[in-house]
Amino acid sequence: MHLSFVPPRRVKIGDAAAFAGTTPRAIRHYHAIGLLPEPERGGDGRRRYGHQDMIRLLWIRRMAGAGIALDDIRDALTADTGTAGDDRGDGDRGGGDVDGGDGIALILERLENSLAAQEAVLRRQRTAVQRMRAEGSRMGLLSDVVTDRLKSLPEGSLRQGELNTLLVTERIFGPLGAAVQATRFIALATHPALREESDRVDAAEEALDDTVAVDDPQVARVAAERHAFEGALDAFIEESGLAGDDDALFEAWDARDSATTGQEKDDEEAEDEDGGDRGSGGRRTRTMSAFEAVGRMPYDFSPARLRCMELAEQLATQDAPAA
To answer: How far is it, in rounded angstroms, from Cα 92 to Cα 52?
Structure first.
């Protein structure tokens, strides 16, 4: 090599940073956390970096660019240095053999697992966004089994309050529970008379506020109206064939679970470990039991309205043997 092209034996921190594609500040941070050993200093007291320092710095930059945390890089390079011979070919301090050691292999394995989990979450999020765009409403944020159940409804026939109810139901009882409850809203949307009666009974229940005593006669009257309405609604669901649709839904759900692919199961496990709440496109929306979920969901019912609900349930229980 011609003497005019011979590089210096050592370079200052600015030149080292420029060559490695980083900044002097970053290199100083590497020194501070023990990732890059302190180099020798020149007569002016400033750091001077040799060949092996630059090799280690380049590996650090390459590994950091691959997403490996600096602490993991330090541990990996330290482990490799302890098991491999130092290369002191030009008289510089040994930087350790960073080209393949058990430390880096273990770090890379952990990183790959982490990236796989992130990919699973991203796939779910992208599916949710695509479905929301396709549905054009909040309905796209519910699980696909719920939105599929409601696709036959005319646009705008599902009310916001009904969407809110499905959201809560899905959180407590999962997508299948919400899909079955969606049958109720399908019936109301397709039967104007039932919808009108439902609105009337709902308004009567809402009138049972904190000013109404639990033993007020209107509490029992509204409970009887609720019971009568629920009977009419159940009869329509049965006669219209919607109940048969529910049976088909259960069968399809069982078949869907049995056909879940290995990748889908891996995605579910990855998201469960991540603490995510599975919603759009997923099957498992619960990270707690239904009992726990009910106990943590606040309600705004008055004592009179709660008593009304209790009385309506008792009337339903009394009719159960005859049914």
So the answer is: 7
Give one DSSP letter per residue of 222-278, joined into a string: HHHHHHHHHHHHHHHHHHHTHHHHHHHHHHHHHHHHHT--HHHHHHHHHHHHHT---
**CA pseudo-torsion sign 316, 242, 197, 140:** positive
Contact 263, 208 (CB under 8 A): no
Please give the mean pLDDT across all residues of the chain: 79
Please tell me whether residue 12 adopts helix, strand or coil conformation: coil
Q: In whole angstroms, what is the distance from residue 55 CA to residue 37 CA?
A: 12
Alpha helices in the chain (DSSP H): 13-20, 24-32, 51-65, 70-83, 102-135, 144-150, 160-190, 192-206, 217-240, 242-258, 262-274, 290-296, 303-319
- Nearest 10 degrees: Cα torsion 141, 142, 145, 150: -100
Cβ of 290: how many Cβ atoms within 10 Å? Answer: 13
- Asked whether the predicted pLDDT for residue 121 surpasses 80, the reply is yes
- Average pLDDT score over residue span 203-212: 95
For residue 69, give both structure tokens: 């945390």
Q: Which of 132-146, 156-170, 252-266, 286-300 has the lowest mean pLDDT?
A: 252-266
CA distance 220 to 224: 6
The CA distance from 308 to 215, in Å, is 10
| Residue 5 pLDDT grade (very low, low, confident, very high; cuts 50, 70, 90) | low
Nearest to 131 by CA among 117, 119, 148, 116: 148
Nearest-10 Cα torsion for 313, 317, 319, 323: 120
Residues linked to residue 49 through DSSP beta bridges, in sequence order? 11
d(CA 321, CA 312): 16
Measure the CA angle with vertex 293, ends 300 and 131; round to 5°: 95
**pTM (two decimals):** 0.56
CB 27 within 8 Å of CB 70: no
